[in-house]
Amino acid sequence: MTARTVDTGLHRRTMLAVGETVMALGAAAGSVGLVSGSLDVGDVVTSRLPFASPVAGGVALAVVVAVPMSVAAVDAWRGSRRADVTAVAAGVLLVGWIVVEVAVIRSVSWLQPACFATGAAIAATGWRGRRS
Fold first, then answer.
1. Distance between CA atoms of 45 and 13, rounded to whole angstroms?
2. What is the distance between the alpha carbons of residues 130 and 117, in angstroms, rounded to a whole number?
């Protein structure tokens, strides 16, 4: 392993850790907002949520996005050997979340494409690192 390989790997892992941390915090904040009622998505979107419940949506957001992104971020920050695998899993879950979210609520905001792209980038970066 050359010094360049180590630097590239460290840079890639740091970028993964930062991206995963940002997404984990964003998903956790969204989850808390939905569960607490401080994030109002409107009557139309609320009626389209499972059980017409922002609480159910918030719990699902925590389970499907916030927790996996948090695990992936911790793995990346620690330099765990499984960091690339958890990055792929968390990224794919985020992409899947966005696809299902748009299909269920039938509403699009600027945040969804941004999160979709971030999830895809995290998954691709983890996939690339898995193979090196």
1. 37
2. 20
